[in-house]
Amino acid sequence: MRNRLSSHFFVLLALIGFEVVAYVAIHRAGLIRGYGPSWISAGRDLMIYFPIIVLAFWLSRSRRFKGNWTLYTTAILLFSIGLLVQYRLYSDPEYNAKNKAAARQQKTDTLRLRYINENYDATKRQMMGLPPAPPPGQETEGPARESAYTIMNALTSSYTWIPIFSLIGFAVAYLFCVNDRFLSWVQRNSFIIVLLTLVPLAGAIIYSSAGKALGNTTPWEPSKVPFLLGFAGILTARYKDLGRTYWGIPRARDVIPLIVMAMIPFIPFFALKDFGQMLIFSGAYATLYLVAVRRWPQLLVFVGSMVLVISILVIGALPRDIQEKFPLLPTLARPIQHALPARIQQRFHLWLDGFDPPSPDESWWKKDYDEAMAKDPRMKELAEQSEAMKRSVN
Hints:
Layout: H1 5-32, E1 35-36, H2 39-47, H3 49-62, H4 69-90, H5 93-96, H6 100-119, H7 122-127, E2 145-146, H8 151-156, H9 158-177, H10 180-188, H11 190-207, H12 224-243, E3 245-246, E4 249-250, H13 252-263, H14 266-271, H15 275-293, H16 296-317, H17 320-323, H18 329-339, H19 342-353, H20 363-375, H21 377-383, H22 387-393
Parallel strand pairs: 1-2
Antiparallel strand pairs: 3-4
């Protein structure tokens, strides 16, 4: 694909067409299951593409952007997938229902009634205690609960304003990043920027619990920006020196500051038990280093070191039943497991073995298990009867 806005503009139009078809399909699927996803919410999502297209023309016509449009198109593609998944998930009444089992049963009953209306004759319907013919208008689908989502809800929703403010923030960030004075300032003060970012993160560490803070949120997400700016700043200051190698390895005085700068964000995110952020930074740092240096020996040294560290952490967080499939792995991973936060080990168990509960004797699960038993004496009494009953209760 040629690196021109016109080519990518047609891709965006095709993407919008695909989104329209997908939203109609989700709405139709909801009606079949007895609920009506909001058209207002769908229209709000599709209207967000208007400022996206305006921003693209602003970059091309006003700012004379000559970079790679594939990055922009890829970001919009990922954003579109997220919008679609969000609409499918949040429009389902089961997602926010207090009694999810009852909400799921209601959808099942609607599907069962639709099947009866389509395939059962009058005799079979009367045998089931139903009228000989379905009510008018419900031959192929049952009555649907209309969404209570209004235009005022859309205008005041965070799902409306967060993308808009994000696009405005992108435009402001672009203006800063094409300014040579700003880039020089970031390069000179990269280490200070990273250290200052640690100050609010320290407060988040104190008041966080189980990787969440301030009402089950993660307010430290914006800290990724100054961390990446700091790493990019020191990388631009030293990438020429990193290109001078001895036997394919850069000098220690050039690579050690880079490693220190890369490791600083891992400390607060490890304390916050946010393993996902650690993986994100690993990939981002490896990509920045590869783009800046473009030398395979350095890639193997720096990126390989980070991959090795992350691999050790991942292996240590694997569930024990998976580790036992490989000789000596449980023994080697045991010290790492003791160092990893319980939330990380729980997350890996959900990813790899989510249908089976962990053993009540697992160190990272035992506390939650004991608290649950303390709240329900009857379940505790059943668990004490035998090991089989204990596994069933768990």
